[in-house]
Design goal:
elongated; 5-stranded antiparallel sheet
Length: 205
């Protein structure tokens, strides 16, 4: 079985409780410190087995880290782990889950090999909003309900469109956002605009 580590919680000695996202569910498993043959870290994709016994929690066994080249690039790792933490906060408490979420992380991990990490996260987040039915493509301000005209648009929580004056936010390219919301592609947004959207999503999914 394969999945991503969304959260680890230290317990007695140096054992861990590990929360894992797989294609069909979130698992909460116990990892013994003595089983040190593979690294356990936030955001890593691993192959593993589960040992079911009577007791506290099922055990995480036979862990193999499925590495990727960008794990040697600390700025990318930092952005990735921030995204993983946000996703955990969004999904915690869910048992069974749609394969979409594992597929999304797989795609983003591939993008990170060559792409700017903030763009990979912004584009993936847009896909997530659309999948969950929360992506508002109409240029209507979520605060006042008015039509948003001109070349700039502000985006609030969940990338909801708004007038800049309604939310006190900086505007970004209307055309760039339209392309992002249609094709999940940020190529028409400047790096400064991507930084703004990334800071917006860091406030919560």
């Amino acid at each position: 079985m394969q999945g991503y580590i969304l959260k680890t919680v230290p317990v007695r000695d140096e054992d861990l409780v590990v929360h894992l996202l797989t294609s069909r569910r979130l698992y909460r498993l116990y990892r013994f410190y003595g089983a040190r043959h593979s690294t356990i870290n936030l955001g890593y994709k691993i192959d593993f087995t589960i040992e079911y016994q009577g007791g506290y929690l099922p055990k995480l066994r036979n862990v193999i880290h499925l590495g990727t080249p960008w794990l040697r690039e600390l700025p990318k790792v930092a952005v990735w782990q921030s995204w993983i933490t946000l996703l955990w906060n969004h999904l915690q408490g869910v048992g069974t889950i749609d394969p979409f979420y594992l597929s999304l992380l797989d795609d983003q991990s591939r993008w990170l090999v060559r792409q700017d990490p903030k763009r990979a996260i912004v584009e993936g987040y847009t896909r997530l909003l659309d999948f969950e039915g929360r992506l508002q493509r109409e240029a209507l301000c979520f605060r006042c309900g008015g039509i948003i005209g001109g070349e700039k648009i502000a985006l609030g929580p969940s990338f909801l469109p708004a007038h800049g004056e309604c939310i006190g936010g900086e505007g970004v390219s209307m055309g760039g956002v339209g392309h992002l919301f249609t094709y999940y592609d940020s190529q028409y947004l400047q790096d400064r605009e991507i930084d703004l959207l990334y800071r917006t999503l860091l406030k919560g999914l």
